[in-house]
Amino acid sequence: MSLLLELRDIRVSYGKAEVLHGVSFGMERGKIVTVIGANGAGKTTLLNAAMGIVPSTGTILYEGAAVPATVEARVAAGMCLVSEKRELFATMSVEDNMELGGFLRSGVERAETLADLYQRFPRLAERRKQLAGTLSGGERQMLALARALMSRPRLLLLDEPSLGLAPRIVAEILGIVSELRMAGVSILLVEQNARAALEIADEAHLMELGEIRRSGPAASMAADPAVVESYLGTGA
Amino acid sequence: MDSTILAFLVQDGLTNGAIYALLGLALVLVFAVTRVIFIPQGEFVAYGALTLALLDTGRMPGTALLLLCFGLAAFLLDLWSMRHRPRIGEFSRSVLVNLVLPVAIYGATWILAPMQLNAAVKALLTMAIVAPMGLYVYRIAYRPLADASVLVLLITSVGVHLAMMGLGLVFFGAEGLRARPLSGGSFMLGFLPIPAQALWIYGCTIAAMVGLYVFFEKTLLGKALRATAVNRLGARLVGVRTQLTGGTAFILAATIGAVSGVLIAPITTIYYDTGFLIGLKGFVAAIIGGLASFPVTALAALGVGLVEAFASFFASNFKEIIVFTLIIPVLIWRSLTTDHHEED
Ligand SMILES: Nc1ncnc2c1ncn2[C@@H]1O[C@H](COP(=O)(O)OP(=O)(O)OP(=O)(O)O)[C@@H](O)[C@H]1O
Ligand SMILES: [Mg+2]
Predict the structure, then answer these.
(1) Of A142, A168, B95, B139, which residue is the least packed, with the fewest Cβ within 10 Å?
(2) Does the residue A84 lie in any domain?
């Protein structure tokens, strides 16, 4: 089966400084692929380039063809990014945020997906009239994920879904991510929390200073001494 | 000053204020969604008023031809931007919106103009001619600059304003026109006669506000416009295209401009360059509302209308100066109270 997403020699520069120096990898359908790495390694930049938020050179193939040119067209093609900054509509209600997540879906699909997601995220259902900007950090994270799911993506790009959350909520969110994989969504997951990410991922890439240094099945990466030492800490 | 004069001034102020409120709302709407300070808003008022006045005389308004020209220019731009990746869907959509629509409106005007139909039909026809221009102006002047800074967009607005005013002179000539009221006569409110046209103005303003409220609160497209105003990148990430929200905002602004033009055409003589001054008063209100708040803008617009009415009674030579001076204390107050944040 052809790859769902393929990155070939992706380079991104901010001004004169190149921060991604030719990143290449492919991901298969139905997998969770994680990119781990230190702060400033370029993980967010990589996801933003894949989504078309930052301009990049190189080739991005999605479902075997050149990826559409604009962010909006990529969303229409089934890609969806939960950005590191969440990018919620702070002065609009939780429900409005959710509905807008399904902007490109038909009214019927939108209503169905909304009902499904309210079951999966009861906390959002309780707060549907609350303004998104007044949610707690964890709730905001959930809303960002739920809003992305409203578009029924085939490829979900997740940037640090566990950022700043209590361990229990991290487990909850990563649990949902695994469930999504069961439901057939492919996921490209960027995480600081390498241990948790490697636990649920199928494949992993280690990124350092804008390059992929190591790649492999998540289980063997979790046992790789270099990864263990720098990212999982001693005693792992 | 006796109470009759007072009542007249209040009524006059509220009538003008209602128009300024409509224009102020359009300015806030366009700025929030696209970050464009829409100086040419007033030109749409003048186009609307002059179009209606010409339809009143049974003549073909120049705006119909202008609409064809705008549509053609937009179509050519679409062709140019499609030159690398021609797509049949986009192409046929462009033909439909930029060529078929204006030709249909032109044809309808050509048939209907000499028929001297009733006022409502003429008003609707005027709106049909002027409203799509908002879309074309967006396509031609602003869409290519979607990522430009507010300053660049402002300079563009000045250019569009001058161009549209010049085109107004070309297509309508320099003489002023006045339209017939939508319905004549007046009602007595106690001792004060209220012209029927004033009631039309109040009614349409309230209807437009309610309409906008429902659009923004209840429809998905309206919510998408709000979302774009709140968080541009967030809106793109859920698949809301900037062209869609930008185009919608401009169509709404042009429609509001056309409605305002239709409403004031019977109460003042409109020249090709009158729109600018009317638009500026809406702009004063919009600034008082911080280019963000619809209710504050609407109230401020009524205030502007009242100040103008009283200024023209007590110091008619200085009426414009007094109105525009209103903005200064507001700007000072704003610069003292708001913390400055970087433009995103
Ligand atoms: N808009 C920008 N302008 C200039 N430099 C930038 C910009 N965005 C990111 N960078 C730089 O690019 C590098 C990679 O940043 P990026 O956000 O991709 O890292 P990251 O791996 O996601 O880090 P973290 O784990 O802290 O989120 C960093 O050195 C950062 O300072
Ligand atoms: Mg990051």
Answers:
(1) A168
(2) no
Considering the domain architecture, whether residues A62 and A166 belong to the same structural domain is answered as yes
Q: Which of A116, A135, A150 finishes a domain?
A: A150
Say what the pLDDT of residue B3 is.
81
- H or E stretch at B316: none
Buried b (16+ CB within 10 A) or exposed e, B191-214: eeebbebbebbeebbeebbeebee
- Sign of the CA dihedral running A208, A211, A213, A217: positive
Residue B332 included in any domain: no
Domain assignment present for A70:
yes
pTM for the whole structure: 0.90
ipTM over 0.90: yes
Domain encompassing residue A113:
89-150
Mutate to test the pocket of ligand 1, among A14, A209, A213 (most ligand atoms within 8 A of CB): A14
Total number of domains in chain B: 1
Same domain, A185 and A73: yes
pLDDT in tens, B55-104: 998 889 989 999 999 999 999 999 998 888 788 888 999 999 999 999 99
d(CA A44, CA A145): 16
**Distance between CA A119 and CA B192 in Å, rounded?**
61
B253 found inside a domain: yes
The token pair that represents B331 in the structure block: 């700007």
Per residue in B166-180, pLDDT (tens digit) is: 999 999 888 888 888
From CA A135, how far away is CA B18, in angstroms rounded? Answer: 38
- Domain count within chain A: 2
Q: Print the SS3 string covering chain A.
A: CCCCEEEEEEEEEECCEEEEEEEEEEECCCCEEEEEECCCCCHHHHHHHHHCCCCCEEEEEECCEECCCCHHHHHHCCEEEECCCCCCCCCCEHHHHHHHHCCCCCHHHHHHHHHHHHHHCHHHHHCCCCEHHHCCHHHHHHHHHHHHHCCCCCEEEEECCCCCCCHHHHHHHHHHHHHHHHCCCEEEEEECCHHHHHHHCCEEEEEECCEEEEEEEHHHHHHCHHHHHHHHCCCC
A151 and chain B in contact, CB less than 8 A: yes
CB-CB neighbours of B8 under 10 Å: 14
Partners of residue A134 in chain B, C-beta under 8 Å: none
Do A100 and A144 share a structural domain?
Answer: yes
Q: Which residues line ligand 1 (CB under 6 A)?
A: A 14, 19, 37, 39-45, 84, 192
Tell me if residue B189 falls in helix, strand or coil. strand
